[in-house]
Structure formats: structure tokens, C-alpha cells
Amino acid sequence: MHFTEPVYRNPYWPTWPLLEVTQGCTHNKCKFCTMYKGVRFDLRPLEDIEADLAELRSTVPHARTIQLLSANPLALPYSRFKPILEKINEYLPDIEFVYTQGRVTDLRNKTVEQLRELRDLGLREISMGTESGDDWTLDRVNKGYHAEDIIEQCAKLDEAGIRYWHSFLNGVAGRSHSREHAVNSAKIFSQTNPMLVGTGGLTLFPGTPLLEEAQVGEFDPLSEKEMFEELLLFVENLTCDCSFITHHTIGGENLSGPNFLARKDDIIASLRDEIEHGDLDTMARIRAMKRSL
Predict the structure, then answer these.
(1) Could you tell me if 213 and 228 lie in one domain?
(2) Any idea where the Radical SAM core domain is (predicted)?
(3) How much is the pLDDT for 114?
(4) pLDDT over threshold 90, residue 169
(5) Cis omega (within 30 of 0) on the bond before 243?
(6) Domain that includes residue 39, residue range
(7) In this model, does residue 248 exceed pLDDT 80?
(8) Containing H/E element for 99?
(9) Which of 2-16, 85-99, 195-209 has the lowest mean pLDDT?
(10) N or C: which end of the chain has fewer CB within 10 A?
(11) Which among 127, 149, 181 is the end of a domain?
(12) Residue 143: predicted pLDDT
């Protein structure tokens, strides 16, 4: 199998098999991320993809799911993405679900009809690295799109019948814009139809512009308690009926699971309990030990 280091995969999806169709990230400019620092975005040659599919056919010939790597394979134009899905179906005819990561901007160059055709070839679920629905925050951390783009592009996925995830990056706006980040993200996400909303807490990793800005006083990171308070505000304002998970945020009971709206009051109660009684110092130490998203 051909893989380019580092290899990241969504841990909440079926994790085998993995198929690398691109390497790196087309954007690679988000101020909080070092995931693909130094990795040039490129398309894995089709002959390599076919060789990997042949190997998978010999080891897992009846695979029903497959996860595409790396950061945002969906950035490939329709004319290059479709043949890859066709090859997957040729070598693994039992495939039912193709999972991939994507950026909001990856959808701009695809029509609803093209997305529908990709869905018919197995593309069923996309994890969108949305991070925020607040324009100030999106500009602040250089995401490369705005809230209106999230709504517009997700509407195309809805029409095409492709499910998608949103992520909320807790703490990424800093103290000065925390409230707007939480409230506006919840409002924008609630104008779409995600199957899942996931939240992760910001860690300032070495080598990120956001850490450098924090070190010179240009970014005001939240304390662990303030992170929970921001997350609480986000949850209070989120109204889409979806699954809800937290990752990279330590602590809290009964936070993750399906049927968000039915569990919303319990999630709010758990977050308030963490704010009042949680071991926030320990959580902060654990967060400080993280070295990667």
C-alpha cells in the first residue's frame, strides 16, 4: 500500500481499509494546524491507486466501506474524482460506503448532478473541517471561506443526498471573540442539515502561527473553564437534530451520542457540572501534552 506520512484518518469511521488518493492539504494555511506542514498537495498516480486496490482485493475482497486519504481528496475535480470511485467499484464490487474528508471550498467546482453521480458510486459521507460559522473567526484563522459558503455548499450536498459532518473548534477565536464564535457557529450549522456535529478543543501546537501570536500577545487563548463556557454557549444555540460528539475536550459525562435535540438538556447540565466541579487543572495539563490534532 502507498501512504505518505503523516497518515491521519477519521477515528469515528470504519478504519479499514484506507486508500490514499491524494497527499497533503490544498489549503494548508489554517493558523492552528500543523497536520500537513511541509507536505505538498498532490494526486496519487492512478497506477498506484490501482495497485493498492488490487492488494485490497486480495486481502479484503468483500469490503463494504473504504476511507479515502488524505486531508481533502474531494478537492479533485469531478473529472478526476469520478474515475477513482469507478476503480474502487471495479476492484471492490461490494463497496457501499465511501468516506472522505473535505473542505467547504472543495464543493465549489462540483454541480449537484455531479455530486449525485458520485453518491451513486458510493460517496456517502464527508467530514467537513468547518471549525466555525463566524466570519470574523474564519478570517482570523485563515480558513479561506465564509459562513455563506458553508450554507451554499452544504445545500448542494443535501440535494445530492450526501451526508456530512460539521466540526466546531472550541477556543479558536480567543477570548475577545468567543461569544460570537460560539453563537454564530451554532446559528450557521443549524441552517444546514449535518448528520453529526463534532467539537474539539483548541491546543496551541508548536510551529503554528496562532501559538506565535499568543506568545507576543496578539492572541488571547481561553482557559479550560472558558473553553467549557464557550462550548456550553454553542450547545445552547445549536438547534439542528444530529448526532453530537466531543473530541479533544477531556471531561464531561453523557456528552456524545445520537439524537442531540432529545439529549440537549442533559448535555447542557453535564457541561455546567464540569464548569462548577470538573478538575479543570488536570484537563489543562492533558491538553498541554497534546502534540497533534
Answers:
(1) yes
(2) 11-241
(3) 98
(4) yes
(5) no
(6) 1-127
(7) no
(8) strand 97-102
(9) 2-16
(10) N
(11) 127
(12) 98
Cell of 253: 459525562
Instruction: Give residue 164's pLDDT band: very low, low, confident or very high (50, 70, 90).
Output: very high
136 and 122 within one domain: no
Same domain, 153 and 108: no
Would you give the DSSP letter of residue 257? B
**Domain end (from 107, 127, 147):** 127
Cell of residue 85, nine digits = 470511485
Radius of gyration of the chain (CA): 19
**What does the pLDDT average to over 204-232?**
96
Residue 288 phi, psi dihedral angles, 5° rounding:
-65, -20
- Judge whether residue 250 has pLDDT over 70: no
- Strand-pair category, 18-20 with 65-69: parallel
Place of cell 481533502: 72
CA distance linking residue 162 with residue 186, whole number of Å: 21
Cell (9 digits) for 285: 495539563
Spatial strand order of the sheet with 18-20 comes to: 18-20, 65-69, 97-102, 123-128, 163-170, 196-201, 243-247
Residue tagged 494526486 (cell numbers): 43
What is the pLDDT, as a whole number, of residue 251? 61
**Verdict on whether the full-model pTM lies above 0.90:** yes
Statement to judge: residues 156 and 291 lie in one domain: yes
* Shared domain check, 140 and 59: no
Domain tally for the chain? Answer: 2
Please, where are the H alpha helices in 40-146?
A: 46-59, 78-91, 112-120, 135-140
Phi, psi of 76 (to 5 degrees): -60, 140
User: What are 16's three cell numbers?
Assistant: 479499514
